[in-house]
Amino acid sequence: MSPNARLSHRAKGGTQEDLRRHNLGTLLCHLHEDGPLSRAELTTRMGLNRSTIAALVSELVTLGAVREERPAGTQPGAGRPSLRVSLRPEHVQVLAADIGITRLVLVGNKAASADDRRLFAELAPDLPLIGCLEASTEAVTADRTGKTLYSLDAGLAASVAAIASELDRRAST
Questions:
Q1: Using one digit for the tens of pLDDT, what is the confidence trace for 64-76?
Q2: Integer Cα distance of 124 and 166 in angstroms
Q3: What's the longest Cα–Cα distance across the chain?
Q4: pTM over 0.85
């Protein structure tokens, strides 16, 4: 599901803080799904102005969730290249959860065995465990390199799609 497709059920009403959180999440989703992007690309994709994107990126840099870097191959003195914003997977681990006003669900990440899946359920006995993403070399590589997992492991991509469908189904009920 694209980050923009989430807008319909996540950004209705709410406070400025809700909108800021939504925009931070959407920006992170774009980076997770598409890899490093420039601020200009984020501005276009999200439909926000440059100063808003700059503030969101700055906050995420401060939190250690993203970094900004000169594009590979640019040379000093060649004008002012647009910095690329990318995830910092060494600092951010994803445990997918859909936090609603009255509900919380859990998705296990990198489950290597049935014991791991049982552990997820035991650690959060009051939360419904709606799925687990299996551990794989591709998942670890994606985390370490900031690449999108969907392009590296078709099986995990199918698991993510099934979990996203279940989250959407629960959100609409």
A1: 889 999 877 666 6
A2: 19
A3: 57
A4: no
pLDDT at 95: 53
Are 21 and 137 spatial neighbours (Cβ–Cβ below 8 Å)?
Answer: no
Kindly state whether residues 76 and 124 are assigned to the same domain. no
Are 45 and 30 contacting, i.e. CB atoms less than 8 angstroms apart? yes
Same domain, 61 and 7: yes
Number of folded domains in the chain? 2
Convert 64-97 to b/e letters by CB count within 10 Å (16 or more is b).
Answer: ebbbbeeeeeeeeeeeeeebbbbbebeebeeebe
> Residue 127 belongs to what domain range?
106-171
Does the pLDDT value for residue 97 go beyond 80? no
Taking residues 77-95, what's their average pLDDT? 73
CATH of the domain at 60: 1.10.10.10
Three-class SS of residue 106? strand
